[in-house]
Design a protein that fits this description.
5-stranded antiparallel beta sheet, 134 residues, single chain, mainly beta, 4-stranded antiparallel beta sheet
């Protein structure tokens, strides 16, 4: 069991680094500067899925790390209110870590939910993440 717990911690750490939020904000940032938000992650039966708001609150970065099971076809996305934005479809195999970034988004002062739409299954969502750039 310890091996599984350690593997889960390694996957979570890798996802945080991939999302781009593993390191703290630069000490050179002026007070009141816009910062990134997140990550907000959800654990899935065969991996983890995370969302972060980056690039001064203008981009949504999504990361899916698949740790087991059969290959799946997914669309990355985010939900803001009742509006859902989805990417094209990608195949993800066990051991893969896939990222997708929605750039130059008008997020406003909204709560954002990461969405992983898995073909033939329900959509999976992360817990909400508030855009701190407003």
């Amino acid at each position: 069991m310890r091996i599984h717990a350690r593997a889960g911690a390694i996957v979570a750490t890798s996802l945080l680094a991939t999302v781009g939020l593993a390191a703290p904000a630069s000490a050179g940032e002026p007070a009141g500067a816009v910062s990134n938000a997140g990550p907000s992650c959800t654990s899935l039966s065969n991996g983890s899925f995370c969302v972060a708001i980056i690039d001064g609150g203008h981009s949504v970065n999504l990361v899916y790390g698949k740790t087991g099971g059969s290959p799946v076809t997914v669309k990355f996305g985010y939900r803001k209110g009742h509006t859902k934005h989805l990417s094209n479809a990608y195949t993800v195999k066990s051991g893969d870590t896939k990222t997708y970034k929605f750039k130059n988004q008008n997020l406003g002062c909204s709560t954002i939910y990461g969405v992983l739409a898995v073909e033939g299954q329900s959509d999976f969502e992360t817990p909400g993440l508030h855009n701190t750039s407003c």
